[in-house]
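INFO batch 0412 | record 1 of 1 | parsing
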Amino acid sequence: MVALIATAQNETDALRYSQISPTGTARFAALGGAFGALGGDFTTLSFNPAGIAFYRSSEVSFTPSIYNAFSTSDYLGKTKNDSKLNFNIGNLGLVYTRIRNKEGSTYGWLNFNFGIGYNRMNSFQNRISIEGRNFEHSIADAFASQAYETHYSELPNSNPFDANLAWQTYVIDTAPGQTSVYNTPMGNYGQLQKLQATSRGSMGETVISFGANYSNRLYLGGTIGFPTVKYEVGKTYEEVDDTDTIPDFTSMTYKEYLKTSGNGFNFKFGVIYRITDWVRVGAAIHSPTLFTLTDTWSSEMSSKIYNSEFSATSPDGIFKYSLTTPFKVIGSVGFIAGKAGLVSMDYEYVNYSTANLYSSDYNFSTENQNLKNNYHGTGNIRLGTEWRYKKFSARLGYAIFGSPYSKSYKIDNSTASVGAGFRTKVFFMDAAYLLNLSQKNRYNLYVLDANTAASAEVNNIAGSFMLTFGIRY
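INFO prediction complete | emitting tokens
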């Protein structure tokens, strides 16, 4: 099996669109996203909608952001670094506040709020470069294994995106006197292997929210969310006999491209209760998101073999399907030190095994069973603090995200953030830097039947710098 891009939709896709790593406003990011008991920030509409009820005036906010992803790979003793820069919009929102009683009453329903806008929920921007010299095998071996026991005339139907391209470009060829057993031109090994994988796109959510404040004690809110997915990945795999030691082989290049796009909807409901002036608690539930997605993909291959050049291109693949992401529950607590500052914490529980893939054209029973067997419920913890001096604020945040692969609690990745703000009665500006510290992962360039292919160790780190501008009226 060749494992560069999986053209079949599987549990990996379900996990990708079930996990979120939001940026939103700079204040939200600077506090590590720990806003479930605080409110008064537009990004809370995508987490605990009760936060909208804290607004006592109408507001417009806008957050431009710069995202920079860095990767380091180690493959067969060689290290490669790469990076990718992206400009994006973290937030664009409007909150309208209607004060029900303007005579200073503090009892009953005091204000009703409406909000509409956009929050960025995840980024898929990344670039990975891998390089190493392999003295044991080649991707050609993987293609030969894939085509084994398939008549060469059937390869365009059975393997149009991979083994058939290898057949057409002589990366594999039938063994003498055979029609379904394949050889490669690799009389020996030692070729340089290279892979560059570039991904782009994001998940964002358009929100329509309503909230209300009862006696400055109980805050309620609800959100209808319309998330969107745009994900693209292109991979270029190369093998080169740069030392001229393989008689019949000079080079080969295999390119794959995958694009996923789609839309969904969900519901969120939240509550925040002010126990005392210095203690607040919050809770929110998120319904599963129902996505309607479309995948399109293609591949191409070229080679310089037997002193000749060959090339082949696959047809375009397309498939439409649905994904239901897991239900989420969030519990929060916040400690407010008057106008001096605050400390807050959120705990979010997600059971990734409950995600589900569906299509009227394909039975996802195997993939859905893999979701149940391989993924588990886990918790995400967000911590944040803010301290103020007159019109200025300083902020710190930290978040850890549990691994969906482990039955016992294990950290999958974490984020650390820092920020500052300046606020007047009619204008505010916030800045934040968010650093995503992901764990090291194993990356297979390809897979042989016996799983003997070498894998690369890849470490990804991403940073976001964002500015939020807002006006109150």
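INFO post-check: The longest strand covers residues 249-276.
INFO record closed
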